[in-house]
């Protein structure tokens, strides 16, 4: 992440931030599958999940939003974008906490966590790919805008 701060080309840093986000989401999905297959220890599973969730969070907050603002050359406030994404995340956590008993009818909370981790990772990777495609199609940050 620190190397992305030294990248002068906003487009390359933006794309690299999206790639780091995909890497983190793929780590979450991979660690959930590895746990199901018995390929990782509980400690390894926790570390992989933590790193996989932290990578997209840091990449989006530290690189993607910042470079997106630079690419569009619009006047914007990074703090507001961070507030919006954090609020959505906290709302999701509250939703899971409030409905946890209703969502897990059979089995354990671990099974629910594994399923959710895999599906959220897949949806996240698709969303990042769509964002990359739309930013390319909009030709954000090109000289002939």
Task: Write up this protein.
The chain has 5 helices and no strands. The protein is mainly alpha-helical. The chain has one domain. The model has no long low-confidence stretch (mean pLDDT 86).
Overview in brief:
The protein has 145 residues and is mostly helical. The chain has one domain (9-137). Helix content is 81%, strand content 0%.
Main attributes of the structure:
145 residues; mainly alpha; 5 helices
- The whole-angstrom Rg is 17 Å
The count of strands amounts to 0
Helical content (DSSP H or I, runs of 4+): over 70%
Anisotropy-based shape:
globular
Helix segment count? 5
The arrangement of helices and strands along the chain is: HHHHH
* Strand composition percent: under 5%
């Amino acid at each position: 992440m620190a190397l992305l701060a030294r990248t002068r080309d906003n487009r390359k840093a933006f794309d690299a931030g999206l790639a780091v986000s995909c890497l983190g989401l793929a780590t979450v999905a991979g660690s959930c599958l590895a746990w199901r297959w018995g390929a990782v220890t509980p400690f390894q599973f926790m570390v992989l999940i933590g790193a996989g969730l932290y990578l997209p969070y840091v990449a989006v907050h530290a690189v993607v939003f910042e470079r997106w603002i630079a690419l569009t050359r619009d006047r914007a406030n990074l703090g507001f974008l961070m507030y919006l994404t954090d609020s959505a995340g906290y709302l999701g956590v509250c939703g899971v906490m409030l409905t946890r008993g209703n969502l897990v009818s059979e089995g354990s909370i671990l099974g629910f966590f594994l399923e959710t981790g895999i599906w959220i990772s897949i949806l996240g990777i698709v969303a990042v790919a769509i964002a990359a495609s739309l930013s390319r199609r909009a030709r954000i940050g090109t000289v002939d805008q």
